[in-house]
């Protein structure tokens, strides 16, 4: 190879190296920290950028996306001197790349140590029960303390989460027994309340049933009494309209006397004074003339078709008419007997 060709090749390689070192393409959500001769020069933002070759150099590449760091479980002692293992998760972003590069050697290690110490301070002021039930409060206090402390590092702590809180095995056993006893107590209370509610509902149902039954019986008695009252009124009106005579009433009275004497307990019974009047009326009935009897019988006989009566009233009228017919038969038999008596004596 001739010297000219070799020189051309060396120049070409040099130009390629210079071009490669002078052009930088910065990805999205990244920043490059540029130093010129060991001193901070500027921060390259996303896109193609030009550098002075052999003078400018990239000090650090900073990722601006939100990052998640999971720290290993840390032993923490609570206010009641119980040791627990707490696993934390930290969310942060870099807001000032130059501060994150120049203000701290390793910001991840610094955040981890700061999270551990802050967690111990926060949890150390709480007892175990409050620690287990106050996750939101612990998260908020941790986020506030870490955000304040990491501000000079160019970091922004967005959120801190307690992933797990593990008490000692003996404490876990005691807590399980306590929770089991609490659940048993609640189960007994719920069962007692259910039994109480069931008995109350059953008693209310029985009460309502008795009330409804009593109301039904009352309404039935009222309707029955109203029916009997209307029946009595109807019978009384029918009898009053038929105009029965004293002889008919006396005859009916004599028919009821045997019913009064019925029964083993009726050994002695008193004949009322009205019985003599009834017998007198019967005697007059047998001694009266036929024309008067016919006239009175015509007064007794009533056209029931003109009356709108119920079954009981019609039955009462039929009984009255039957009694009148019986009286008529008895009167006719006696008249015949009186007509035959002189002939037999002669």
UniProtKB/TrEMBL annotation:
Intracellular or extracellular location(s): Membrane
UniProt key word Transferase: no
Lineage top rank: taxon: Bacteria
Composition-biased stretches (Polar residues): 333-346
Keyword Lipid biosynthesis: no
InterPro entries registered for this protein in UniProt: Band7/mec-2_domain, Band_7, Band_7/SPFH_dom_sf, Band_7/stomatin-like_CS, Stomatin_HflK_fam
Keywords: Membrane, Transmembrane, Transmembrane helix
SMART domains: PHB
Gene Ontology CC annotation, any one: plasma membrane
Membrane topology according to the record: Single-pass membrane protein
Protein family membership: Belongs to the band 7/mec-2 family.
Name of the protein this chain belongs to: SPFH/Band 7/PHB domain protein
Species, as recorded: Glycomyces buryatensis
Organism taxonomic ancestry: Bacteria, Bacillati, Actinomycetota, Actinomycetes, Glycomycetales
